[in-house]
Design brief:
Layout lengths: L4 E3 L7 H12 L3 E2 L1 H6 L4 H8 L6 H4 L5 E2 L8 H7 L4 E5 L3 H9 L2 H6 L1 H4 L2 H15 L5 H18 L5 E4 L6 H7 L14 H8 L4
Parallel strand pairs: 1-3, 1-4, 2-3, 4-5
Length: about 200
């Protein structure tokens, strides 16, 4: 069947919460950076994608109903073309809070990637984020890249396929796009800055 949701939103825009929500709505796994940790053989595929050599998307996403977060979101256009019936989901938050969240979590990990990640991971991360924000992860360049990415999605995704979602929107936009009922339970909210830092050992 292929992906039903192509996530175009970048990390720290509620993507882990979206992963759990979409898995519940679709009854299928949702690809997320967490999946890469569970499938280290995928690291080289994403590294090659960052170098311009795209994987077989059908094969890579076999068994998944959706994909959100980095690294998949960096290639949302390729995936949208490969899965033409999929909803394109742009998750966003205001630029200032996005920067604060990234700076205290994933960007802190990336700045020390050479010390904390295996070599192939480091190569993939550096290539992917070098293209996103250049050689530095300072606030001005990162925010400009974030806003540029979101504007590009808004102006290039087919309007009839694009759904924009913000943390706090909850179930409704997702359920409307998928044509399913809204669950009678709270929307999942996970992976706060504090939870991420504890998981990544950034405070220890």
């Amino acid at each position: 069947m292929g992906l039903k949701i192509v996530g175009a939103g970048l990390g720290r825009t509620g993507t882990h919460s979206l992963k759990l929500a979409l898995e519940q709505l679709l009854g299928e796994p949702c690809y997320h950076m967490i999946e890469v940790f569970g499938h280290p053989e995928h690291v080289s595929r994403w590294h090659q994608a960052a170098l311009g050599n795209m994987p077989d998307w059908d094969e890579l996403f076999t068994g998944y109903g959706a994909a959100v977060d980095w690294p998949a979101a960096a290639f949302w256009e390729k995936q949208a073309a490969a899965f033409p019936d999929a909803v394109i989901l742009l998750s966003t938050r205001d630029s200032a809070s996005w920067w604060r969240s990234c700076d205290n979590t994933i960007f802190e990990v990336f700045r020390t990637a050479d010390d904390k990640m295996p070599g192939e991971w480091t190569s993939m991360i550096k290539e992917l984020f070098g293209q996103f924000v250049g050689d530095t992860l300072d606030e001005a360049s990162a925010v400009a890249a974030y806003e540029r990415h979101n504007d590009h999605v808004r102006t290039t995704a087919p309007p009839d396929r694009l759904v924009e979602w913000h943390p706090g929107d909850g179930w409704a936009p997702l359920c409307t796009a998928l044509g399913v009922a809204v669950p009678d339970e709270p929307f999942p909210h996970v992976n706060s800055t504090e939870e991420f830092r504890a998981m990544a050992g950034l405070d220890g």
